[in-house]
Design brief:
The protein is an alpha/beta fold. It is 49% helix and 12% strand. It has one domain: 3-Layer(aba) Sandwich (Rossmann fold). It is built from eleven helices and eight strands. Helix 4 packs parallel to helix 5, helix 5 runs parallel beside helix 6 and helix 6 packs across helix 10.
């Protein structure tokens, strides 16, 4: 009797998982834009692995000069070689960037501003999940620093070049990678530095909610410019981001997500759609999912909340008034 029940449960589980897989794989949308990017420049943070590597490869294949960034030199060198071999493009550059370090972000952006004449696409893709709750030099936990605050200052410092490059016909585009888990996040600075293991999940959620508020606030401040900014939910993507859970659990989760939901290539599609498609050219401050305009939770569009987060973020990353003026903010 017990064996029969166990077998029946296993059959139900297998059938259920098969149905879910078939549904997910058949409904995963793809970016259909045929746009060429000759003469354009793109920056992809975390463009050396997983979803970021797929995004960078696609942009390079379209003819863009692609700058990939991560804090690991060997990973960056290997990724550059992989993209060149895959696309035949030699216009691929790797630069070191540690988003948890204000000094690293400033060095990276200064280098871009000094060496590049334009910047057309900025993909804020790099992220960490469920990592140790250590504090960083920014003064907040590791996930908040990498997923949100590092990208906050990076984006603002690159705005002059983005503004210079955009036109009314083709504005520069900023794509912020968020997550459906922003639904569980809050913009409450006091909760960001609680170090108990229990808070790891919520730190991730908070960081992705802050990405949503940042997108909303920045879009308002860029209203009269030729730059648009939007956020995307890539879905459940099987990447190495889960390795921080533990090697074994990370491998299992990655395998399941790749096979049940989205591979890194499939997960890259919404970011590519927002960065390239003509339909998204004049849309700003919005949230996209599965290559469609979607809707984040209501508080993600709260003007008062987004302004408060903006001011807190300016203070945390130590941006000066003269820097904000140069950014045009």
């Amino acid at each position: 009797m017990i064996i029969t029940v166990i077998v029946a449960l296993l059959v139900v589980i297998v059938v259920t998982l098969t149905i879910i897989r078939l549904h997910e794989k058949q409904t995963n949308a793809m970016c259909k834009s045929k746009k060429k990017l000759e003469g354009r420049v793109a920056v992809v943070t975390g463009g050396t692995a997983g979803m970021g590597l797929e995004i960078a490869t696609d942009l390079a294949r379209r003819g863009a000069k692609v700058i990939i960034a991560c804090p690991f030199e060997q990973e960056g060198v290997n990724a550059r070689r992989t993209i060149i071999e895959s696309t035949g493009s030699q216009k691929v550059i790797f630069k070191l960037l540690d988003l948890k370090s204000l000094e690293s972000v400033r060095e990276f952006t200064a280098d871009i501003l000094n060496t590049e004449k334009r910047l057309d696409i900025l993909i804020n893709n790099a992220g960490v999940a469920f990592s140790a709750n250590t504090k960083t030099y920014i003064g907040t936990n590791f996930m908040m620093a990498v997923n949100y605050l590092g990208h906050f200052i990076l984006t603002l410092l690159l705005l002059p070049l983005l503004k210079k490059s955009g036109t009314s016909a083709e504005p520069s585009r900023i794509v912020n990678v968020s997550s459906v888990l922003h639904l569980f996040g809050r913009a409450n600075y006091e909760s960001y530095n609680r170090m108990a293991i229990f808070y790891r999940f919520f730190h991730y959620c908070h960081s992705k909610f802050c990405v949503m508020l940042f997108t909303h606030e920045l879009s308002k401040r860029l209203k009269d410019s030729e730059v648009v900014v939007n956020a995307v939910d890539p879905g459940a993507v099987g990447t190495n981001i889960y390795q921080s859970l533990s090697k074994v659990i990370g491998l299992v989760v990655t395998f399941l997500f790749k096979n049940m939901f989205k591979t890194p290539w499939e997960g890259a599609q919404t970011a590519l759609y927002v960065a390239l498609d003509d339909e998204t050219r004049n849309i700003s401050g919005q949230y996209f999912k599965n290559c469609k305009l979607s809707r984040a939770k209501k508080s993600a569009y709260d003007d008062k909340l987004s302004k408060k987060l903006w001011n807190d973020s300016i203070r945390l990353v130590k941006l000066e008034e003269d820097e904000l003026k140069i950014c045009g903010l």
